[in-house]
Amino acid sequence: MRKLPAFIFLFCIYGLVFSQTNALPEGVRQITSVEGITEYQFANGMKLLLFPDRTKQTVTVNITYLVGSMHENYGETGMAHLLEHMLFRGTPNRPDIRTEMTGRGARPNGTTWLDRTNYFETIAASDANLDWALALEADRMLNSFVAKKDLDQEMTVVRNEFESGENSPQNVLLERIVSTAYLWHNYGNTTIGARSDIENVPIERLQAFYRLYYQPDNAVLLIAGNFDSAKAVQMVHQYFGPIPRPSRQLPQFYTSEPIQDGERLVTLRRVGDVQLIGAAYHVPAGSHPDFAALDIMSWILSDTPSGRLYKSLVETKKATSVYGFNFQLRQPGVTLYAAEVLKEASLDPAKETMLQSLEGMGMNPPTAEEVERARTSILKEIELSLNSPDRVGLDLSEWIAMGDWRLFFLYRDSIRKVTPQDVQRVASTYLKQSNRTVGIFIPTEKPDRAEVPPEPKVTDLVKDYKGEAPVEAGEAFDPSTSNIESRIERISDSSGISMALLSKKTRGGSVVASMTLRFGNLESLKGRMTAADLAGQMLMRGTTKRTRQQIQDELDRLKARLTISGGATQANVSLETERENLSDVLRLIAEILRDPSLPENEFDLLKQELQAEIDQLRTEPQAVASIAFSRHMNPYPADDPRYTETPDEATASLKAASLADVKKFYKDFYGASNLQIAVIGDFDSREVSKLILDLLSNWKSPQTYRRIEEQYIKVKPVNESFETPDKANAMFIAGLNLELRDDDPDYPALTFGNYMLGGAMNSRLKVRIREKEGLSYGVGSNLNAHPLDRSGSFTSFAIYAPENAAKLEAVYKEELNGVLGNGFSAEELSVAKTGYMQARQLGRAQDRELVRKLALYLFLDRKITWDAEFEKKIESLTAEQIQSALRKQLDPSQISFFKAGDFAKSATK
């Protein structure tokens, strides 16, 4: 019998699911199927996309509503985003959605953008969890409270989020550029909205907005992951099918942006430490055929280190960094570029050079090499994403908002066809002086205007589109600790290399790896922290065989994501690629680690980039508070590798560092005599282990490695505040050091107690400070214990408005004392345990998370069964045991508080 190709066989299997086992429910019809994604239409107008993947024990439910900030009217800016927050406030049937999510161990969120709003949950794969998620989304589609009392509380949380964005001059400047580029279209309004609208929007308008847009005919539901397609359709029909198609007609927005007829200038004056110059140009809608060429153009201009802006600005030291991106939207958007410039440098040369590089591209066309490099990088990201349906499932919200999810595949196909002539044409068409927003108005005798075409008819673009064969499917992998442990092969070599290899069939033959090289000791590392950090960051900037750009080109060719970093005591490698390229990527890693060229030009550029990063720390509340907290809690000598430098000290150290220092540090310490590597995915363990040993086993570390022990230091409690002028948001950090190791009897109770106090979505701190008081957008707590030394910590954090400093601290203390005094209820404990266990299983189902744990466990000489034993201890905990452990370890009188913000300004309000 002739063997069918794999993709045809799979198509036949999927076809039989519905044709022989379960007919589609009444009123449901299949629309199309492209590359493993199948679309259905319901009688009430809702669309359903199914993207099954049996390789991971997770499922993502993502519902996209075709409403965003562009649909807001006068006085309603920010309302789409505000409503996104409100839908987590509950329904009559589900008054506490966050607790439900915690109980399922879900990873949920909601996001709002210009054209759409989406809500999603990633959960452990099971029929029960999928049933719960679908029932939840169907319920809050129509039955969310959207009540005045909830708006009063959530408004202050959203306002806090608004203030957090206002802390960044860079963020504000980019918002100003976009708002200046648009005269009439709502794309000029930031999604967070105007503060006055956030504070004053009437509940009646929010309710009307909700009833208008949150309807089945304005929604696309997507399910991606491990599920049964036939059951999923039946479940969706059960919960969403009874919702009637609304009789109302959605409003049609007819405002279009006129052709820009002259350059525009916006100037922002605020406290800050790094200058920034940006330029925006109007471009067509994301579905327009020009957009693939525009994306390649943007990549050629803004990539680091091959991009034209990087070469003309950063390499000439006129700027410290550059970046660029396109707003790919349903209607015509913008392409935006920016460069950071040191405070003491002149901005004019950077501005002039940037505009010449951008607007000169039409006269200086891209080379075939530039286009191919950009194409390879973009396609790599697309192909790697297609290996993870959960990623694609969320990314498709953007393409759905553009008009149809199949635009994603059409865009990929278009990227493959872009020529240098296409890129030159779009650059000449859109990167014009009269079409930019950056300069002042200058009368022009003969304006040269860019006419942006309207968005195309998407139905014609996607009609009869079939796409390519679905990505190769993998095995259904059980993420239980027992199964993981049974599949791991551990190998140790006399050279000091140890490996944990977990081979399995994965989607697209994907493979992930994590590697740690440990070196040095306390005596040999003293006073060498800056050289160590610089050496780690120089590794990927060139080898004796390849330049920095050639390394990146090779990674793109091999479809690999690779990061290599290093510090005073270790270097870390993180890898994601595919089976067929794994061996070549490992050889490239060995080349980078063993033969770095440490080039002088890259060293100078790195120092410049790092100085810009240091400068930004000086007035950022989060950085100011965090540095002060770390220095107080860990008071080590200045030459100790564990010492925390101030920005001034970091600047002095960076200026004093020489390339000779970096080369000497590399020569003195780097080697593989104490190396741990974990690999998970589709690979041959025998071949991979042999290759790793061949590449690295003879690379000896010059210095003897002795682990630097972490010390428990009892510090005097303090309460300190730091002024950060002109910052709308403040930072709160509180904590104390603990004499604790993670095998201590109290550790499970402390860990779980912290989870209920400030770790879970419905933790005490989050419910009180965020939900009830509306004081903070981000609040929580952490408990850490070292696995080898009796050294741990308990910390809490919150971002908030400076005028609420006293109230926030009082509420925090009240909640902490309440937990220590009264403990947790049996119901809290039960819900939290269920969610905590599912969350841990969800983490093990993510290969990128699991591989890091396996590498660490090699160093700790632990097996994954340690997790199972720990979870048994959690399961057996009583509320009394948790309260007792917290009381024993957390002494409120010993907690130190650090706050940074514009408190002086808030005091005058």
The chain-level mean pLDDT equals: 92
CATH class of the largest domain: Alpha Beta
Q: What name does CATH use for the topology of the largest domain?
A: Cytochrome Bc1 Complex, Chain A, domain 1
- Termini separation: 83 Å
Globally, the shape reads globular
User: What low-confidence regions span 5 or more consecutive residues with pLDDT below 50?
Assistant: 1-21, 439-444
> How many individual β-strands?
22
DSSP strand (E) fraction? 15-25%
Major sheet summary line: 7 strands, mixed
Strand order of the largest sheet: 1-2-3-7-4-6-5
Report the radius of gyration as a whole number of Å. Answer: 28 Å
**How many domains comprise the coordinates?**
4
Helicity, as a percent range: 40-55%
| Number of H- or I-type helical stretches | 35
Describe the 3D structure.
There is one protein chain. This protein is of the alpha+beta class and 909 residues long. The protein has 4 domains: 27-240, Cytochrome Bc1 Complex, Chain A, domain 1 (2-Layer Sandwich); 274-459, Metalloenzyme, LuxS/M16 peptidase-like (Cytochrome Bc1 Complex, Chain A, domain 1), CATH 3.30.830.10; 481-696, Cytochrome Bc1 Complex, Chain A, domain 1; 719-907, 2-Layer Sandwich (Cytochrome Bc1 Complex, Chain A, domain 1). 45% of the residues lie in helices and 17% in strands. It has a 7-stranded mixed beta sheet with strand order 1-2-3-7-4-6-5, with helices on both faces. Strands 12-13-17-14-16-15 form a 6-stranded mixed beta sheet, sandwiched between helices. Strand 2 (37-41) and strand 3 form a beta hairpin. Helix 10 (291-302) crosses helix 13 (368-386), helix 11 (308-314) packs antiparallel against helix 12 and helix 20 (529-538) packs across helix 26 (659-669). It is globular, with a radius of gyration of 28 Å. The model is unreliable at 1-21 and 439-444 (pLDDT under 50).
